[in-house]
C-alpha cells in the first residue's frame, strides 16, 4: 500500500499527464526514504501512468467524436453502425472493450515487472481470446496483444531454460547409476538441442527423432512442444509426422495424461468447469487433429449450457475455433452445428461464432447499400 503523501505526490506529477524520468527518480528516492520496496512503488507509478494515459485517450476520443471499439475508426454522431467495419455499436461493447484493455494492460505490467505471471493466467487468456475474437482489428488491442505475446514468450523461454536445468539436476543420480537411462537422456538432449537450433524448418524426420527421444527420456511435454511447433508452421505436412503424433498419444494414454481421458473423468463427475479448463489449458488440439476432440468439446459445451453458463461456452467455443484455425472447417464441426441451433432456439446472438461465406458477405454488403442509394436518388 502506497502512503498517502507519496500517492498525492504521484498525482501532482500526473497533472500534466506524464511522469518524467526526473520526477520518477524523485518519487523512488522518496520511496527509499519511507522504507518502501522500490520495485513495488515503480510498478504502482507505472499503473497510475497507464490510468492517466487511458483518461487522456478517452478525452481525446470525446473531442474527435465516437470511436468504433471493434476497428478503432471514427463514427459520426447518431449512427449506431460503424461505416468502416459495418459492426453494430452498443454501450455494452464499449464497456467490454474497456474491461478487456484494463485486463490486458495489467497483464503486461505483471510480465514486465517479473511478477507471478501464472497467477492470473486463466483470466488473462480468457481476455486475450475475447480481444482477438471480438476486437482483433482495434489498433490499441493489436498493439497490446503484440506486447503481451513478446513478454510472454520471454517468460516462457526463461521457464523452459530453468526447467531444462532442473531436469538435468533431477536425473544426475539416475544417469550415474543406470547406463541405459544415460543413453536415452543424452540422445534426448542432443535431439532437442538440434531441433531447437534448426527450428521449425527442420525436416519431418528430425521432428520425429526429437519427439521419440523426448518420450524415451520421459518428457512428454517437450515431445508435444516439438510436434506442435512443426504442425504450426507446416500443417500441410502433418501426414509426414503422423508417427510422432501416434507416439505422443500412446505415451499420454499410457500414463493417463491425454486430454480425452482427463476430460472424460471430469465429465463423469459432472465437473464441466474443470473439463473446460483442461481443454483451454491443453496444447493437444490443433488444425490437423481437431476432429479427434470434437465430441468431447461438444459434451463439455452441452454440460455448460445445461447450467446456462453462456460466457464459459463462448470462451470454449472461441478457443476451439481458434485452434482449428479455419472458419470453413469450424463450420463443419458438430460443436458449431449444435451451438448454432441452440443459440437460434434461445434467441441469442451467434454472429461472433458464425461462419459467413464470401458470397454471403457480398450479398449483405449489396443489400445494405440499396436503401442508401435510393435515399440519395430521392434527394
Span of the ends, CA to CA: 64 Å
Count of helical regions: 18
- In the sheet with the most strands, the strands line up as 1-2
Sketch the topology as an H/E string, one letter per element: HHHEEHHHHHHHHHHHHHHH
Number of strands: 2
- Counted up, domains total 3
Description:
- The protein has 379 residues and is an all-alpha fold.
- It has three domains: 4-158, no CATH class; 171-254, no CATH class; 259-358.
- The protein is 72% helix and 1% strand.
- It is built from 18 helices and two strands.
- The chain has helices at residues 4-13, 21-33, 38-64, 91-112, 121-135, 139-170, 172-177, 179-198, 204-216, 220-233, 242-254, 259-268, 272-281, 294-306, 310-324, 327-331, 334-346, 358-378, and strands at residues 66-67, 74-75.
- Strands 1-2 form a two-stranded antiparallel sheet.
- A hairpin with a 6-residue loop joins β1 and β2.
- α13 (272-281) runs parallel beside α15 and α14 runs antiparallel to α15 (310-324).
- The protein is globular.
- The termini are far apart.
